Amino acid sequence: MPSKSRLAQSPLLLCALLALLACAPAHAQTREVTDMAGRKVVIPADPKRIFGAAPPVAVTLYAIAPERLIGINVPIRGDEKSLYRKEALDLPVLGSNAGMGRQLNLEEIAAMRPDLVVAWLGFYQEKAKVVESFAKIGVPVIFLKLDTLDDYADAFAFLGQVVGREAKAAEMSAYIRDALLRVREATADIPPAERLRVYYAESADGLATDCDKSFHTEPIVIAAGDNIYHCEQSSHVGMDKISVEQIVALKPSLILTQNKGFPALAKSSALWRNVEAVKNGRIVNVPHAPFNWLDRPPSYMRALGIQWLANLFYPSRFPLDVKAETKKFYQLFLGVEISDADFTRIME
Question: Which of 64, 103, 196, 209 has the fewest CB atoms below 10 angstroms from its CB?
Answer without folding.
Answer: 103
